[in-house]
Design brief:
The protein has helices at about 20-35, 65-70, 100-110, 120-125, 140-150, 175-185, 190-200, 225-235, 240-250, 255-265, 270-285, 290-295, 305-315, 320-325; strands spanning about 5-10, 40-45, 55, 60, 65, 75-80, 85, 90-95, 110-115, 135, 155, 160-165, 165-170. The two termini are about 25 Å apart. The protein is elongated. The chain is of the alpha/beta class. A hairpin with a 2-residue loop joins strand 12 (about 160-165) and strand 13. Helix 6 runs antiparallel to helix 7 (about 190-200). The strands form four sheets. It has a seven-stranded mixed β-sheet with strand order 5-2-1-6-9-13-12, sandwiched between helices. The chain has 14 helices and 13 strands.
């Protein structure tokens, strides 16, 4: 395949949150490593001038280009991070420099897609890009966003929200979830999942609802635990009781429980249920199997048991989950 390099411009300005700037490039750089061709992104950091920019963390970052220079290029994705001011009472307020807002408006007009990270949503709103749209931001500034911009429908619950070609993300570490969602849109869920595994993080579903997130395989530190996890994944339709697993591992039930708590921080039963929910989730997304068949294949036995597990793990039902996340074919 020929290479496709989508230009991603990340805006830099004084007191910007450092992780908002450095997090997304980590996701995008891992994409090329996890694919078999040269497809990927070209990421540049743009600022008012080429002088170093001091972030909120005190770390100085060097721009690759200026706003004016990049305004003459076709931008695939404009990423807009944010900055805040914290007063003596620890009250947080998002900052919106008029000069930066002006450049957001200018560069957005050159971009196929625009995304804000954390309180960067305030800059998008000030540039008029969120009027009439549903948007999210960090929970600490959601009320400010709603008060300052009544034309924006603010929802502080989701990790990220997509409204056409405009995306908004909540929280600082949510920049990784947002970036994974952009990768999934451009190159597919499988590519995003491979990147997420390298980051050893949760893979957020496209809706951005945190409660619908399930963990990728926990990281274990011993070969014995790796063997146990693989045994469980291959035999989810078996009982997999504590006694069964202890016998397989040639340890006592008490010792097995201690191993799971030490290695993974959960009980054997909780891990097995989590693994079953993960497989059931994938079946609900990708097949038309009945709930009875899903419950049986994943080792839940009955639909009622499947439903209870989904309510515990995802705070929803299998039917509701499928209606929201079923992949189109």
């Amino acid at each position: 395949m020929g290479s496709v390099n989508r230009l991603i411009v990340i805006m830099l300005f004084t007191d910007v949150d450092l992780l908002d700037v450095t997090g997304p490039p980590e996701v995008f750089s891992l994409l090329r490593r996890e694919t078999d061709d040269e497809t990927g992104y070209q990421v540049v950091l743009a600022a008012e001038t080429m002088d170093p920019v001091t972030t909120a963390a005190g770390v100085r970052v060097l721009p690759d280009t200026t706003f004016r220079e990049v305004s003459g290029r076709a931008i695939d994705t404009l990423l807009v991070p944010g900055a805040v001011d914290v007063d003596d009472q620890r009250r947080v307020r998002a900052l919106t420099d008029p000069a930066v807002v002006s450049w957001v408006k200018e560069l957005a007009g050159r971009s196929r897609r625009v995304a804000s990270v954390c309180v960067g949503a305030h800059l998008l709103a000030a540039a008029g890009l969120l009027d009439g749209k549903r948007a999210t931001t960090h929970w600490s500034t959601a009320q400010q966003l709603a008060a300052d911009h009544p034309a924006v429908e603010v929802d502080a619950d989701p990790i990220f929200i997509r409204e056409g070609a405009v995306w908004t993300g909540a929280g600082i570490t949510a920049c990784l979830d947002l970036s994974l969602a952009l990768v999934a849109e451009d190159f597919g869920e499988a590519a995003a999942l491979r990147v997420a595994r390298q980051l050893v993080m949760y893979l957020k579903r496209p809706s951005g609802q945190s409660q619908f997130s399930v963990p990728i395989e926990p990281v274990s530190t011993t070969r014995r635990m790796d063997d146990l996890r693989h045994h469980i994944s291959r035999h989810l339709d078996a009982p997999l009781t504590l006694a069964d697993l202890a016998e397989y591992a040639h340890v006592s039930e008490r010792q097995l429980t201690r191993i799971f708590r030490t290695e993974l921080g959960v009980t054997p039963a909780a891990y097995v249920e989590s693994a079953r929910v993960e497989v059931a989730r994938n079946q609900l997304e990708t097949s038309d199997d009945t709930l009875e068949r899903v419950a049986s294949a994943c080792g839940f036995g009955t639909v009622d048991t499947l439903i209870r597990a989904f309510r515990r793990r995802l705070d929803t039902t299998p039917t509701e989950y499928r209606s929201r996340f079923r992949h189109s074919v």
